[in-house]
Amino acid sequence: MHLFAQNYVGIKVEGNQNYCVGSSAIPIATNVDANLETYNKETGDNDLVNVTIAIEDALPGDFLLFESTDKGVSFTQDIHYKVNDKADFKAKFTDFIQKIEFNSTSTILGTRHVKVKVNHKNYFDKTNHFYTYVDNDGWRIYWSNALSEAESRSENYGLLGYLVTIGSLQENDFVFNIIEDPSSGGTWIGASDKDEEGKWIWMSGPEKSNVLSWTNWAPGEPNNQGWFWMQEHYASIGGDKTWNDLPDGGGFKRIYRYIAEYGGMPGDLPVVMQSTVTIHVLPKVQPQGIYFNE
Fold first, then answer.
1. 41 and 133, same structural domain?
2. Bridge-based pairing state of the strands 16-20 and 274-282
3. Which CA distances in Å does 261 have to 128, 252, 271?
4. Same domain, yes or no, for 141 and 256?
5. Cα separation of 133 and 176, whole Å?
6. pLDDT at 110
7. Whole-angstrom distance, CA of residue 20 vs CA of residue 79
8. pLDDT computed for residue 48 by the predictor
9. In which residue ranges of the chain is pLDDT below 50?
10. 90 Cβ neighbours under 8 A, 6+ residues apart
11. What is the pTM of this model?
């Protein structure tokens, strides 16, 4: 078994093997590697990821085994590891995958695909990006400061941070769900119309300078209804998942948090959070014998 060069973030599992029906179970993977750790080094609160293994095109008689125990065609396993210790996660993930085997008594031959997927609490598979909730310890944070602070965050494998950009209802829901106590106030996101009133664009990240292609404004928003010295040019997401425009400091709605997003920036490592191995199910091998004429 060889190790991959770690020029990626996530996991890599490889395998392309033959299996003869009725023979002993075989490991699903021939090569395994991982480069993953927690995405909140400040709080150190994430010491678990969830790994799902499934035969995507399973047929009757196909089975996955873990330490010789029948798990059916799909199962999930929690992997605990030391906070911020990707070496520890790599060792535990590799050991876990190497213990998974494939077995079949199926009468239907052909190719099977086994998917290994890591479910990380800060990872959204629809965008292939990571997200971090950042709380300014209850102190007001200006949108402009949140923007520059998010862009300075690059501690996660060198992935560059930016104030979150949201492009779909699903991403909006994901972002909302990682906000702690969302009903307690707004959270800064990366949109602004400060350069041209009414023209809302993303101000950082891979979509920087792009006009918003999807929005979730609250009814009547954006309305730029701040006092004349507090023009509302900055977007936040509220406790009902809708957006509102606010002054830079939040005005009378004190905001102390934002969401940083990671992924898709020039120079970033590719993110690989799932791998698929191939198993070719072949006919049962008949024993060879020596026969004598009577």
1. no
2. parallel
3. 11, 26, 13
4. yes
5. 10
6. 97
7. 31
8. 63
9. 1-5, 39-40, 43, 291-294
10. 33, 34, 35, 36
11. 0.83
Averaged pLDDT of the chain: 88
Give Cβ neighbours of residue 159 (< 8 Å, ≥ 6 apart): 9, 130, 262, 263, 265, 268, 269, 271
| 167 within some domain | yes
CA distance 37 to 34: 9
Same domain, 104 and 128: no
Q: Which residues of 109-131 are buried (b: 16+ CB within 10 A; e: fewer)?
A: eeebebebbbebbbbbeebebbb
Q: Tokens for 157? A: 């494998």
Q: Tokens standing for 263?
A: 């992924």
Residue 225 has what pLDDT? 81
Q: What is the pLDDT of residue 292?
A: 46
Q: What is the pLDDT of residue 155?
A: 63
Instruction: Please give the pLDDT value at position 233.
Output: 95
Contact (CB, 8 A) for 163 and 277: no
Cα 82 to Cα 35, 45, 150, distances in angstroms: 14, 10, 26
**Residue written as tokens 């809708």?**
242
Instruction: Identify the helix (H) or strand (E) that includes residue 177.
Output: helix 169-177
- Residue 89's H or E segment, with its range, is helix 86-98
**Beta pairing, strands 234-237 & 201-202:** unpaired
**What's the pLDDT score for residue 133?**
92
Domain of 140 in residue numbering reads as: 123-262
- The pLDDT assigned to 286 comes to 64
Q: Do 209 and 142 share a structural domain?
A: yes
pLDDT (tens digit per residue) in 203-243: 999 999 999 999 999 999 999 886 666 789 999 999 999 99
285 touches 150 (CB < 8 A) = no
Q: Which amino acid is at 131?
A: Y
CA nearest to 25, candidates 61, 78, 76, 50: 61
